[in-house]
Amino acid sequence: MGSTRKTVWDLGIELGHNRSQTVAKRSLLFLGSKQSGKTSIIHRFLDKKDEPKPTLALDYSYTRSDQSENQQCDVWELGEATYLLKLLPFVLKEEQLKSMAIILVLDLSKPHELVPITECLLNTISMRISPFMKKHSEDRRSSISKNKSERRSSMIKKLLPDITIPIIIMANKYDLLQEMEPEDLKLISKYLCSLCQSQGCSLIYTSIKRDQLVSRIRLLLKKHGFNEQTEFPEARFDYTKPIWMPSESDPSNLLDGDSLEMLKNMMIKRWKPIEIELKLPDDPAKDDNFKERDIDIIRSQRYQELENYRHHMDHKTD
C-alpha cells in the first residue's frame, strides 16, 4: 500500500488554502495626479521606511491588521491616473465593490490641477461603477416583484442599492497650502467641500510632514482597510486649519450659499486649469530612480547587439 503521509508541499498547499478561506480581505485603491503623494501616504500606512519611488503603472501591496492576523488589506496604487485610467477594470471589479474604499489624492500646492483632476477621476469612477450599480438595482427590483406581499414602502427601500463605495479625497501637502493668501486658501477649501458634499465623499487635509495629520491618515485608512471602529473628531470646516469633512457632514456654514458651479468657475478664473492629456510616461529605463545594475548591463548589451545588427543590415543593402 502507498504511504498516506503528507509531504511538506501538501501541508503548505493545505495551509495556504485554509488561510485563504479564513482571511477577511478589504481593499484600498489610491488614485491621483503625478507626485501628489500617493506612494508616500501608502508608505506611512504600511510602515515602510524606504524612500518612495514613482509608480509606473499599477502597484500592489498588502498588510495585515495589528489586531488580527485574519484581516488583510490589499492596497492598489494607480500611477499618474490621468493616462492610466484604462487599468481601473483590473481593480474595480464587481465582486470587490462591497469591501473597497477609493482614495483620491490631490496636490494642494497645485490649485490649477484641482478642478480637472477631480472631475476626470470622479467621472471615470462613476462610469466604471454605474453598470454594477444598475445591475444590482435590477436584481433587487426583480427579487421584490416576485414577492407581492411586501408593502410598497419596503419595496422602495429595497430598490436602493446596497453597494456603497466610500470615496475619500485626501488633499495632500497641506503644509504648502498655508503659504497661500487667505482668500485663495478659503476658495480652495470651499470648492473641495462643495464638491465632496455633491458627490457624497469624505474630505481630509493631509501632510506627511505633520505627525498629527499622519496619525489621522493611518486611523482613517485602518478604518476602511480593516473595518476598525475608530473614534474621529467632529467635522471641522475652519479653512485656516486642516479640514476634516466626513461624508455625512454639512459644510453650509463655510459655503455661504455659494454653489458648486459658482465655486468651480471662480477656481478656473483664478487658476488656469491644466489640460488632461492621455500621454505615455517617460521611458523608465532612463530614469535614475529605477536603476538596476545587472538589468541595465544586460539591456545595454542587447541594445548594442541590435545596433550592430542594424549597421550590418545597412551595409548589406548598400
UniProtKB/TrEMBL annotation:
<keyword id="KW-0206">Cytoskeleton</keyword>
<dbReference type="GO" id="GO:0005930">
    <property type="term" value="C:axoneme"/>
</dbReference>
<comment type="similarity">
    <text>Belongs to the dynein light intermediate chain family.</text>
</comment>
<dbReference type="GO" id="GO:0005813">
    <property type="term" value="C:centrosome"/>
</dbReference>
<dbReference type="GO" id="GO:0005868">
    <property type="term" value="C:cytoplasmic dynein complex"/>
</dbReference>
<dbReference type="GO" id="GO:0045504">
    <property type="term" value="F:dynein heavy chain binding"/>
</dbReference>
<dbReference type="Pfam" id="PF05783">
    <property type="entry name" value="DLIC"/>
</dbReference>
<dbReference type="GO" id="GO:0035735">
    <property type="term" value="P:intraciliary transport involved in cilium assembly"/>
</dbReference>
<dbReference type="InterPro" id="IPR027417">
    <property type="entry name" value="P-loop_NTPase"/>
</dbReference>
<dbReference type="InterPro" id="IPR040045">
    <property type="entry name" value="DYNC2LI1"/>
</dbReference>
<keyword id="KW-0505">Motor protein</keyword>
<dbReference type="GO" id="GO:0036064">
    <property type="term" value="C:ciliary basal body"/>
</dbReference>
<protein>
    <recommendedName>
        <fullName>Cytoplasmic dynein 2 light intermediate chain 1</fullName>
    </recommendedName>
</protein>
<keyword id="KW-0493">Microtubule</keyword>
<keyword id="KW-0969">Cilium</keyword>
<dbReference type="GO" id="GO:0005874">
    <property type="term" value="C:microtubule"/>
</dbReference>
<keyword id="KW-0243">Dynein</keyword>
<dbReference type="InterPro" id="IPR022780">
    <property type="entry name" value="Dynein_light_int_chain"/>
</dbReference>
<keyword id="KW-0963">Cytoplasm</keyword>
<keyword id="KW-0217">Developmental protein</keyword>
<keyword id="KW-0966">Cell projection</keyword>
<keyword id="KW-0970">Cilium biogenesis/degradation</keyword>
<dbReference type="GO" id="GO:0035721">
    <property type="term" value="P:intraciliary retrograde transport"/>
</dbReference>
